Amino acid sequence: MRPARSAPRRLAAAPRKVRIIGGQFKRTPLPVADLPGLRPTPDRVRETLFNWLAHLVPDWAAVRGLDLFAGTGALGLELASRGACAVTLVEREPQLVAQLQALCERLGTRAVQVLRGDALALAARLPLASFDLVFVDPPFGARLHEPALRAVRPLLAPGGLIYVESDAALPAALPDALGLTVVRELRAGRVRARLLLAAQPAPPAGPDKGQVDCPPPGLSR
Fold it and tell me: For 139-197, how does the pLDDT look when each residue is reduced to its tens digit (9 = 90+)?
């Protein structure tokens, strides 16, 4: 996750650090910068999410992931730790971008690329159908969940998954309108988490930029 431009009301004090909970980078600490709106996915929710994924993803090594609001990198780096072949982290804040780059260098991973910029603008420049798993976890109160889901849906490969975390219900008709099916969901306090499956090809969204394999896809100009 990443901070919003204007500080939303905090749900609770953020921890100073979280840890990767599984895989080759297990127990690696991820610092949580003191920035308004920065709210790492709670450990319990993250553990539940990756338990869901363990039953739905047949081969971690074939997964191409996108963390659209990376923040601490807790979701995207957790995916890389499980062995995903390529993970793209998108973050706007310079301090967090530098932190993510330093973490990737320290971990020695070449599977992760960090892109600095506005999440929705960068999503519009990524190749279509180029990701198997997308994390959508914008700052609560920023009203970005629906536009972000619409932005990433064309980026999802057939049979791919989108994880969305929010503090409010999504419009009831939105998943169907985007060709998505809710396959898992939970509520922990004010956190609402849903895992959505692309059960059919994405609705038309403009010229196809082509599908790519690992390494992570580059941006169109």
Answer: 877 788 999 999 999 999 999 999 999 888 888 899 999 999 999 999 888 788 999 99
> Within 10 Å of residue 114's Cβ, how many Cβ atoms?
23
| Whole-Å CA distances, 197 to 118, 160, 164 | 25, 6, 11
| Partner residues linked to 18 by β-bridges | 30
Q: Convert the pLDDT of each residue in 97-138 to its tens digit.
A: 999 999 999 999 999 999 999 999 999 999 999 999 999 998
Amino acid symbol at 171? P
Of 149, 26, 139, nearest to 77 by C-alpha is 26
CB distance 16 to 35 below 8 Å: no
What distance in Å separates the CA atoms of residue 94 and residue 161, rounded to the nearest whole number? 28
**Residues 132 and 211: beta-carbon distance below 8 Å:** no
pTM confidence score: 0.84
